[in-house]
């Protein structure tokens, strides 16, 4: 059989036409109708281009999948086992050399990259922290949390309010904000964690909105929508400002010219260290009894109870550790922006963090790190497509759910070498 | 604390709305025995199990578990409603509040009773070893700091846990499958793993809900041997629900027969075999009609 003999062109044409029709429905209203004051302009040219690209692309794909190569490829992907795999007991990852390399590159970045690139990377790292925090709650413990941004807001406002009212700086608020976020997680969690699934999602969604509404409306404390300024971190008491009211500034002490990039370099280095610390702690947690209990709870809550695990406390611990990570991320966000207001903590942020966890793979650390960078850095690189950001986001989700429903990185489990068992 | 009886069930009543699933069920289980709970479908066997293990809160009656050198009232640890007298005595009030907030079926397990399920409930996406490690949660070193820093005492406790895991995998003949996912195992292997997991919590009494369901005769025989090992080598009392009469008569020292939520007979296998009420319940008989085998 020759490579092209088996192609059913009629089927391909039908496929292409159906896809073109779908594209017309999707792109027509979004791209074709451009508002202009109170009237609108119909831009049929743009729509025609997009539909043409879809039709031709679909036709080509349809033809390709009827060739031998295409059939072989489809077969390979259909049989791709995407499930969880257990590693061999003596498994050593071949990619371990990547870790020191990433650390080395990461330490060099602030001295090479421009100020703009550095701010984008800082944002990416903040989302890595958020993703890791939510990954504990959703990925490991299986609790769908749609109000995660609430804890992020608590961390960010913790820094700003602590500075304004108590005079606490970045370094004292970093642990305190994590603790406050964890306490908020406990207060929210204790009454609601008896629920699971959809009910919990709705309650946490409400919690996120409550936090945002409080921040907007309690104007005497939070200044409402006007927001408050947040302090910069200090380097052993040295400030990163042009001139300081009390004491020396960083550039004066080291006798170098002032550069506003210094503060971003410093924030970046601190954040980089915190991200690695969180990665290490998470790496340990999944191997510890508490991490195993979280995953067991996700698998079967009733079985967990029958084994003597207090399901409420196990869930609560996951919720609190996840929340405290979000609190840390919030502190970095506030200090990096220098200013916080409630509009940074909308439901869209929660959805974005959840998307990071789902795209990365539930429970997979590496996947979450990659996904966090993809979803925060890509929109910055593709500034021209800013209007289509949410559309791109949706397409990415659909494509991922079709090809890699379990996330970018496959979840693996530790293997244990067999031994002679004893019981005492 | 009763030395003779590990489990005492007195006048157990369980109502679901208007349905009376259990009516005045009373029986005692001797320490170190293998006992069976039998009865036709819908007799209330699994309901009794769920009450014993704390998954249902019984409507009335008492369940007393005498294990780990103390007496535990299964109904109390699940958290009872407040009563008028509680408000007069702060001590009783706080104890009740504690059980209401933190109580639940996990306390029954910690008191020394573990169970398996009729429809297997393993952690399917975790490996076989991890399933057994989770079961040892209460015995492990759960300190967050020790775990993150990987201290000596933490490593020692994890090593001991793994030793125990491989011991029990040896008992249920699953050492070769140690690093497979629990969900990938065959049905018979999953049943055995569930028993091993229940035993890893170090119980004094284990309740098996239809352990032989879906097993072939040779697997059933292996299971019978395993249950004897549990009783003879680990001093574990076994209470089981089973429909395989051959197996029940073979291993049980004591049998309780339930029908329509009531105990219609209890005694040794010989008594049960010849009890006319039991035969009537299984084969069906008119009121007052005598049936003999």
TrEMBL record, chain A:
Pfam families: BPD_transp_2, DUF3382
Domain of life: Bacteria
Residues in coiled coil: none
Localization terms from the record: Cell inner membrane
Molecular function per GO: branched-chain amino acid transmembrane transporter activity
Membrane topology term: Multi-pass membrane protein
Keyword Cell membrane appears in the UniProt entry: yes
Descriptive protein name: High-affinity branched-chain amino acid ABC transporter permease LivM
Organism for this UniProt entry: Marinomonas transparens
TrEMBL record, chain B:
Origin organism lineage: Bacteria, Pseudomonadati, Pseudomonadota, Gammaproteobacteria, Oceanospirillales
Keywords, ordered alphabetically: Amino-acid transport, ATP-binding, Nucleotide-binding, Transport
GO cellular component: plasma membrane
An annotated Gene Ontology molecular function: L-isoleucine transmembrane transporter activity
Gene Ontology BP terms: D-alanine transmembrane transport; L-alanine transport; L-isoleucine import across plasma membrane; L-valine import across plasma membrane
Protein name: ATP-binding cassette domain-containing protein
Assigned protein family: Belongs to the ABC transporter superfamily.
Domain of life: Bacteria
SMART domains: AAA (SM00382)
Keyword Phosphoprotein recorded: no
Translocase keyword on record: no
Family annotation (PROSITE patterns): ABC_TRANSPORTER_1, ABC_TRANSPORTER_2
ABC transporter domain sequence ranges: 7-285
